[in-house]
Amino acid sequence: MRQMAMTETLVDASAGLQSACQSEKKKETKTKSKSKGEAQSKTTKADPKADVAKAETKAVKLTKEQAKEALSKAVAILDKQENKKKLKKVVDACGDDAAKKMAALMPMVKDLLAELLESYGFSGDRILQAVMQIAGHAEGDKKRRGCKSLPVAFNMGNALVELDGRLFQWSDSEEETETGLRRRLFAQQYLSRHCWIRPSRNDVKASLLGRSQRINADEVLEALRRIPTKHWRNSGRANVRPEGINIIDSITLGLVSCASTQGRPLPARRTRLYENLCKLLLRFWKQHIQEEQRQGNIPGCQGLVCTSIQMNRNYAAREHVDGNNLGPSWIIALGDWSEGGELFVEDPWGRESHMLSCDIPGQAPQRFRKGDVCRGTFLDVHRRWARFDGRRMHFVRPFQGGDRFSLVFFAATRHSAAPAAARSFLSVLGFPLPEGRDPSSECRCSTFGSALKVDELGRAAGLEVCFSHPVHILRSPKLDTVAQPSEGAKWNSTAEGR
To answer: Which ranges are annotated Basic and acidic residues under compositional bias (predicted)?
Structure first.
């Protein structure tokens, strides 16, 4: 409440100074109206609703210079906040409408905004809502609250970002379209809200991260089992939900592009709840994978990157193709299930066949139809790592006999559109983000790439050929027109799952 009063004080002070900007003719008109009102009040009782209506009609349009002057005077008054009685009078004299208007003027004086945010703890959401109103992007909210925009030039390059738990303003001279502005304002509001989320009490303890030993599979499994069921529940991801199932147990850590983010790549909310878990999983992945890559044991992939971690619990994903995935993906499954649970990956040269049980959308001729027969490979991922191309059709074989948790590490396609503050936050957690806007030169799989399998001790267990072309989707040939691999393909006859 104190912070809200501070915010209202800053703006209310400006509202009190607006009358000083009016001409003598306005003052005379106002004086006559006041005298007339006093005469009427002698014969009628005071009407609170009428007073509110009159107060709303007193909104005065400020010029750019008057707004800056009013803000400077308001800041000077706010600095003398020891005089609480005077401040209270100013607060009582103005409503929320005026407060929002003044808050919307703050981005015009970027030199003062950072100091105000740091010294007085203004609500980032409140300021952002006002900025959106002043830019004309919150029509529904304005109609509900009766707010009126001020005719002030809006700086397209101003935005709020979160840094070390606080909100600051940064300026960018790059001009953006109206749609880009709306999306960027939403992104900053999204980040400002999430920066106050406290870590879950079920998150990994910091003491576990402080150790220098390797992270083993049992420690990861224990951390996954600590997550409460309510955090696992997910009604989205319709493309992977088994038929007849409306809710699955699935969590995405890192970048997501979904309805809650308005399609823009932003950190998922669960990332804030489980920051230490993110660090643990990334260390687990790097220790078992990147060490092998540095030693040259992982051919076919340059520059291992990761922006997101997909965690799944106790469901078998149906046939699907990842739409927001650069391709190279690493997977491992943990748990005590006893039968099934293998990952099927489409492969024109695979030795297994599968008939699709549903349509998989895509652009012709790469889309799949129900009843198509695809060749592929089943990968045993139980406590073993495997790399596959997420742009290929894949699914999980039904399993039974216990719990099954799977972890998929991948890079989002639209990672370059993520705000700088979001990328900085993920980098601190340990995500090896792709650099630049052209990911193809940094993260690609060569023709006839391989999948490295690693046992629970981190030892190489074998190589699997799981994809053979760098295209987005390659429709598998029918069983009666099976093509043969080229001379450059190398097979591992000892690999499991063949």
So the answer is: 23-54
Q: Indicate whether 255 and 354 sit together in one domain.
A: yes
Supply the pTM of this predicted model. 0.56
To which residue do tokens 């309510």 refer? Answer: 230
Classify 302 as helix, strand or coil.
Answer: strand
pLDDT digits 0-9 by tens, 59-95:
333 334 444 454 455 545 444 444 444 444 444 544 4
Task: Mark whether 332 and 422 lie in a shared domain.
Answer: yes
Ranges of beta strands (E only) in 210-358 are 233-234, 248-256, 266-267, 301-302, 308-313, 328-335, 339-340, 343-346, 352-355
**How many whole angstroms separate alpha carbon 288 and alpha carbon 383?**
12
Asked if 245 and 119 sit in the same domain, the reply is no
Q: Do residues 390 and 327 lie in contact, with contact meaning Cβ atoms separated by under 8 Å?
A: yes
Sequence-separated (6 or more) residues with CB below 8 Å from residue 51: none
Total count of residues recorded for the chain: 498
10 and 147 assigned to the same domain: yes
pLDDT in tens, 358-414: 887 765 445 678 888 888 889 999 998 888 888 888 999 999 989 999 999 999 988
Q: Dihedral of the CA atoms 352, 355, 358, 361 (nearest 10)?
A: 60
- Total tally of structural domains belonging to the chain: 2
